Amino acid sequence: xxxxxxGRGPSxxxxxxxxxAGVISSTQTWLVVQRADGAAPLAVAGADVLALLAPLSLAVxxxxxxxxxxxxxxxxxxxxxxxxxxxxxxxLTAPLAVAxxxxxxxxxxxxxxxxxxxxxxxxxxAAVHPTAWPSVALVGWILLVTVSMLALLTxxxxxxxxxxxxxxxxxxxxxxxxxxxxxxxxxxxHGTDPTDGPR
Length: 199
Description:
Number of strands: 5
Strand content: 5-15%
Number of helices: 9
Structural class: alpha+beta
Helix content: 55-70%
Order of helices and strands: HEEHHHHHEHHEEH
Radius of gyration: 23 Å
Largest sheet: 3 strands, antiparallel
Strand order of the largest sheet: 2-1-3
Shape: elongated
Number of domains: 2
């Protein structure tokens, strides 16, 4: 069986992994702010650096779940949405993984000190250092873009539920051939044991 016909499993799994990595990373420290006044460094979580991080990551998880059961036309729509989300997240995350600006920590600095504005930020922030988490998230977004493109290129050749089953003997059997994990789950949801071959 070709990669094109089995593309649904890797695509769904990739979206779920990328979305999960984004959700986890949103709660972790992305930036460490060194303060010019000598106070203790300030740790800034991913969700405080990127307001869209957690919502988009949850959306990617939902897209992965929907992609596993979507019809032919909807597959392309969902894959295109996932691709757009991945590109946006790469654009937003890449600068933070390499050379984060002081403005990325502005909200956290204001919450910690009560001071706001560019002038106050310049006085308080001596340096901003990224942790490993922006890079981890960036790898997840690259995976997201890759599997979204895979889905767009192969979705037309994914097996549909109506073609996998045939009536006979009061039960439905899947066509011969290997099944991916999503196919096996579909078999179980229809009351058919995917390990039980045709009689």
